[in-house]
Amino acid sequence: MDPVLVREDAGVAEVTLNRPEARNALNLPMCTALRETFADLDADDTVRVVVLKGAGTVFCAGADLKERKGKDETWVRRRRLASFAAYETIERCGKPVFAVVDGPVVGSGGEIAMSCDFVLASSSATFRFPEPHWGTVGATQRLQRVVGKRRAKELLFTGRVVDAEEASRLGLVTRLAPGGELGKLVTETVEAILAAPPLAMSLTKQAVDLGEEAALSTGIRIELAAIERNLADGGWRRGVAEFADRIGE
């Protein structure tokens, strides 16, 4: 069974973590598959948006600790580097990428979700970061950038479960769907992204990401460079015309 499934249709790539028998726990083959999948999607000009979800009732139960039995420190170190490479490839994908969470997210599952541009979730979503309690170290960097340093420490130190409402307040979840309406929210979000010109969307993501840790003055220069590239393409005229037509309807 492939650890990651990909289905493409009309500009939308649906990527599924596909180890439901192991609650989609992240193992080495899944790390490799995620890295290769997102590298391919990034290079595919027909893909406009990527939706990442988990098969079954769990998004991802964290790292598959069973695969570490009998392994030495060198293997574990390489395995951790493979997971970092997977997260980074998701994060660096030039297309809009969002996660859909309809169940538990644990440890490495949180790293995968936080590597996406944003997260849509149902009320069934929960988050937990138990790495220290599992005798390991993880989620120390992305988590604090999402929820803040003090909250990240509390979540890591206690390993407690965060329900969907709190996850939304903390910023782990960007939008929380009303009961039974997660599918509708996903469809609406995909349609909204597809409605924008591809280059403008790509440049917007790039400018936000590059400007994240830059001074405002540097960020403005990044945005101006993106504007110049967009103007040089000429597609902006079509976008303005289509917007004007919609307003006039």
Automatic annotation (TrEMBL):
Record-linked InterPro entries: ClpP/crotonase-like_dom_sf, Enoyl-CoA_hydra/iso
Highest taxon listed in the record's lineage: Bacteria
Stored CDD domains: crotonase-like (cd06558)
Annotated PANTHER family: ENOYL-COA HYDRATASE, MITOCHONDRIAL (PTHR11941:SF54), ENOYL-COA HYDRATASE-RELATED (PTHR11941)
UniProt-recorded name of the protein: Enoyl-CoA hydratase/isomerase family protein
Species, as recorded: Amycolatopsis samaneae
